[in-house]
């Protein structure tokens, strides 16, 4: 089925001989030579065995009919040769197309072989890594179980911490109320202390004024006492 490449010919059918132009021309020349041989043989036999005077005209007509038949055969063979040439051209184009398709198929086959080799390598890698993958899956299952247990513990701890947080929030609210009350008491105490500090400042200022007045009186008294002391000292001397 189909065309198969052979050495020594442009193309050939699978299991057949090369079919080029020369192949059909050989048959054409063979038919022409056979026709010429038959004509010559007929003439020779006619000349040897026939009656020239009686059958010349009938033989001539038969020869003309035979020649016309042979001419028609030659015309048919020529047309057949032209058709065969067209078929040969079409077959050559089909051969080129088939060659291109064959090259493309070979490239695709090379890519498929490369992909197959890569798949084989990946398969070997997968087979070699399968025990590790099984161990990883088993370890993952154990980790998931541990994670579930840890989640349970974490949930219990979360509920406990949440309860403690709510309790601390209640206590914090109470402490805030106490602090607010203490703050209000301290603010009131602060106002009283500020008032007392203001009164103390006034008293201190008044005492400073009185002290300044006493110091002024003392200085005045000291000035008065100095001349008397000098006079007493002179008198005693």
UniProtKB/TrEMBL annotation:
UniProt xrefs under Pfam families: PV-1
TM region(s), chain numbering: 27-49
Keywords carried by this UniProt record: Membrane, Transmembrane, Transmembrane helix
Biological process terms in GO annotation: positive regulation of cellular extravasation; regulation of vascular permeability
InterPro entries: PV-1
PANTHER family, sorted: PLASMALEMMA VESICLE-ASSOCIATED PROTEIN
Name listed for the protein in its UniProt record: Plasmalemma vesicle associated protein
Organism, scientific name: Mustela putorius furo
